[in-house]
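Supplementary notes (optional reading)

For those who missed the lab, this is the record we used. Protein: DNA-binding transcriptional regulator, MarR family. Length: 143 residues.
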Amino acid sequence: MQGDRGEGHPLGRLILELRRLERNPRHYGGIGPLTPTEIHTIDAIGREEGILMSELAARLGITKGAASQMIGRLEAKALVRRTPHPGDSRSVIVSLEEQGKVAHKAHEELHRSFYNHLRSELGAEGIRTFEEGVEKFIAFLRK
């Protein structure tokens, strides 16, 4: 029966579409391909001029070891760099290289474009309703 696994229901289709997007690497500003995990790591770093590895791990909800592995992959692609913290020899600051900044800016523009399109389709009231629904959905998923 359609809908038993959620495929026929809009929410089920949304979840399936998000899963599909999470599997597919993309190019951002000519940089890539980057996986969703990589670009979201770049996004978390790009919000600051530099971020402590421990803060990055906390922001992404992953272990410091997993963050370190991700940063290693992004360093190999010349997108980020690690530098020792000037006041704490045990800490590492992660920042974006120029190519990382290009990818970050392109990712921000993608989000801005998506949001502007959604706003033009839904209008201000529709956006408020949509955002309230998303917040409730997130709260439900975190239970």
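If you only remember one thing from this example: The chain has one domain: 26-141.
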